Amino acid sequence: MAIRLSGMTSGLDTDSIVKAMVSSYTTRKEKYQKAQTKLEWTQDAWKSLNTKVYSLYSNISNLRFSTAYNLKKTSVSDTTKATVKAGSGAPSGTQSLKIKQMAKAGYMTGAEIKADSEKTTLAQLGYTGGDAKLEVKMGDETKSITLSASSTMNDVVKELRNAGLDANYDSSYKRFYISSKKTGVANDFTITGSNIDGASALYSLGIAYGGEKTTTGTYSSNPYDEYAALHGVSDDETRAKIEAAVTNYNNLTTDAAKMNAQSKNLMNAVNYGYSYVTLQGIYKNLDEKNAGYSDKLKLLEKLGSSRDGAVISKNGDSYDTYTKTTLTDTKGNTLYKYIDSDNNSHYIAAVADKDKDTTSYYDVTESTRTAYTDADGKELEAVPTVVDDTTLKVGDKTYKKDEADGKYYLQKEDGTADKTDSITVSQKTEYTIAADAVNKTGIESASVAYDTIIKSMDEKTKSSYDEALASVQAFENSKDEVLGSDDKYSVASLTKAIQNAYAGNGKEAVEQLLAGNGNETDGFVNKANALEEAAEANTKKAADSNIVKELASKQKDSSEYTQALNDLLDRVNTAYTLQNKALFNSQVKKVAGQDSEIELNGVKYTGDSNSYSINGLTIEALAETGDSAISIITSTDTQGVYDKVKDFLTEYNNIINEMTKLYNADSAGSYEPLTDDEKDQMSDKEIEKWETKIKDSLLRRDSTLGSVMTAMQTAMMSSVEIGGKKYSLSSFGISTLGFLNAAENEQNAYHIDGDEDDANTSGKTDKLMAAINDDPDTVMQFMQQLSTNLYSAIGDKMKSTDLSSAFTIYNDKQMKTEYTNYTKTIKEWEKKISDREDYYYNKFTQMESAMTKLNSTQSSISSYFS
User: Fold this and answer.
1) What's the whole-model pTM score?
2) What is the pLDDT of residue 517?
3) Could you tell me what percentage of the chain is helix, strand and coil, using 3-state DSSP and rounding each to the nearest 5?
4) Using a CB cutoff of 8 Å and minimum separation of 24, what contacts does 168-172 make?
5) Domain named Flagellar hook-associated protein 2 N-terminal: which ranges (predicted)?
């Protein structure tokens, strides 16, 4: 802004005069600024409320399904032996548990040595060798350690810990104590020397373990025997033995992987088979009520989450699916795309009539033309003249093609290209509704069609349908990572077998296929168990040759394979030498890692920890029970179900009370947001009070808020039919207090009779808890349907429109546009004010200049008379 010096000659307060002269412009600008501020506050109010409504919407999503209410509690007859928690899938009743064996971690107590402190060195223990190389093996992982004569007991402890063990040296008892960090056979450990000095160092440290000493003076578990067994009379023979072990290991693991995959598929196919039968039964019943519903439903199932952006069109006995695209026709109408069996694309345009709230669909014609766009991406109004393949003319301007990027650049007088002025030539595809196009009939919204069919089911059928469909789709969409599609137990083969069985003789044929006829080798279940046992046997055999596992993982004939083979050769040769030369401490004691073993209802389970998750039960074994069994009693958690309902109502009440308060807020009257000048005249407290008055009233009597409230209240007041009888919230002692008894703005909130936390209803009979105890299934089915009704009501209000985004209950897009328009308008008025100020200041400057000249002339004339 230019510096203005005015009023110096005239003595006038020019700034004040100019300010007064443009005040009408300033008032208009401030009007838009206040409106924008108010809009911003309204946006903030809606955002806050929308977040809470969306949270409720998300939370009640799970309440639509039985698993949300299928809460269980459990008790154990002897809590010193085990603790048990029940999940929603746990069956009610009494079960028998035996804890046959607890999982243990591998543990070693070293022999007594002559190390008086943690600082004692290996040399002081009599070790005279060089670099002592050790190997610590835990499960499939091997880590190397190097010690020397100067290594202290502390150094040894540190190295063992770095290798993944828990280790400690106790100078009082002069022993090492070493253990695995995890329980189970797979997590057990061995410590061996990988050279003569390593074996010698272990002996000096009192941790050279070779098992129990036999009567012949040998040791029962010489740790070097496994590697030494691969030793041959020559290195070539040793290599041959190693490679034969690798081949055997690969065959065992490959077969085990295949059998495990087959077993897994068979077990999954069992669930698939029963679910497939259930689904076909539902389809059949649908068609009996509404012919053709099953075919339409199968199509809509395949669309899945794409239903919201698709429409379907009747085509004879089948349907064509048109999915929403980002394309538009020449008039801006959204296009939907259908791909036929020959992979040809067809488009229809959706023409919305906002006044009638309807949408019509028309076929469009597809055409391609050459388009010319300038450097800003705007299409040229006049089509250039094509001189030749490399030259375009626009009026008297010549553009030449640049072969590097394909654009045409303006040619300057000196023959060079002007890179700021270019033309891009491209082929533009356009879609146009023909003048004689007829509105296509029979087109339905895919999501609406799906909802219509789903709503035709009763709650029990809907629950069965959801579970069966999820199971069927999960299996059919699963991929075989190990098996080929031609394997008789692949997903594709098993799917075909089950579907063929159903097509042949319905439900009975499928059940025969899955369960068999009593023969041990018949039926999917028995076959799966047999394959699992065979895979387990192979895995155990492979574990016997686990020393070649790392080598087997390398690509044969690669440099990595050659290096690994040579390393293993050296290890075998060393082990062969150490097999007879290594010394072992007879006093060292080793407790092997042990897996746990339990029996639940007579079925044996094993694991590397003492924790199990079986059929909805989480079992933590604490002590062995021997042959005695303890009881696990599982039942419905009635208090948990009650709390689930109460928590839902609490969240609903909080939101509906806030909405009611916002809707019924006092009017702010003539209060408007303050300008900076107005704020300067008030204290901070006065400003806060003023603005709060406005903010509290922003959603008063808002039609959008009112419609959301009405939708939610209608859903909550709806009745649900279960077993031919209608139920509502009042059936379970849940109701509002009404306008006369409720606190201000809380007349729409629900209260539970007998709720000890609610002073309004605590003295009444608790009908809800009584109903949960007497007939939990009815309560659960009612709450599922009520939640579904509320979820749908809120979901309908949160659908995306031209004015609002998805999952938004207010017109956020419209408000954003309005805010942008205000910003633009305010800038325009600021420009007008600036222009008017410049105009007036210019006039006053001219006046000041004229007065200065006049004063100068008067001074000159006066000087003649002085």
Assistant:
1) 0.56
2) 62
3) 45, 20, 30
4) 169/115, 169/118, 171/115, 171/116, 171/117, 171/118
5) 10-105
